[in-house]
Design brief:
Helices cover about 10% and strands about 35% of the residues. By secondary structure, the protein is mainly β.
Length: about 240
């Protein structure tokens, strides 16, 4: 696997994927730097719901990566993926951002519940996991995480966690030791289609229909009811 050196609040950490380190014993883990040095982890945190892991490290002369803004990345932007595919260390591949907001992916163990991936055709293979997706300003905008492949290798469909999400998870793990998440408390109707939208008077298919409301949830407190159509969230239209 691979990782990204990140510095927050004056301390150094390795940002990577949980699946890279989850089967490893901490006392046997080694982190190899670009200059050949090997360092050991001081402490490890992870969040299985997003497949993010953070490793605290302490060594002189560490150079952190420059973190970009993944919200500003656009489809078609040229990107590079760095990592160690098949243990070919310090490899780089080039491609574009193919799509944003990919979710509902089957990632093997089924533990990654919260998905909002950027898709790229930069070659990503086993060993790239946890490495950076970088824009042409040398800013990290993604954490390379998964591939969709029939062969087990690169088929031109790779997925990266947007760096804004990964860093937000990282800060919570480092500062609180866990990730706190907000939730709405509704079940949405997957059968809500154009015909159903027209029947209730909408001009086209839009919004999300509430199928159920969980007891004691924020949705119940806000008096959402079964059959309601949620059209906007924080001012953003739900298409």
């Amino acid at each position: 696997g691979s990782g990204i050196l990140v510095r927050i609040t004056g301390r150094d950490y390795i940002l990577t994927n949980r699946h890279v380190i989850k089967h490893s014993d901490e006392e046997h883990m080694r982190i190899e730097l670009y200059d050949g040095r090997e360092i050991r982890p001081r402490r490890i945190w992870s969040d299985k719901e997003t497949d993010v892991a953070v490793i605290a490290v302490d060594s002189p002369g560490l150079i952190p990566a420059r973190i970009g803004d993944s919200d500003r990345a656009e489809i078609g932007d040229i990107v590079m993926a760095f990592g160690s595919p098949f243990n070919l260390r310090q490899s780089v591949t080039r491609g574009i951002i193919s799509a944003k907001g990919r979710s509902n992916l089957d990632l093997g163990d089924g533990e990654v519940d919260y998905q909002n991936f950027m898709q790229t055709d930069a070659a990503i293979n086993p060993g790239n996991s946890g490495g950076p997706l970088v824009n042409l300003r040398a800013e990290v905008i993604g954490l390379n995480t998964a591939i969709a492949s029939n062969s087990g290798g690169n088929d031109g469909i790779g997925f990266s966690i947007p760096i804004n999400i990964a860093v937000r998870i990282m800060r919570q793990l480092v500062e609180n030791g866990r990730v706190d998440r907000g939730f709405l408390g509704v079940k949405l109707d997957g059968a809500f289609d154009t015909r159903a939208a027209m029947v209730i008077g909408l001009p086209r298919l839009m919004g999300a229909r509430v199928k159920g409301v969980s007891r004691g949830s924020p949705a119940e407190a806000a008096e959402l009811q079964q059959g309601d159509i949620i059209l906007r969230l924080n001012g953003v239209a739900i298409e």
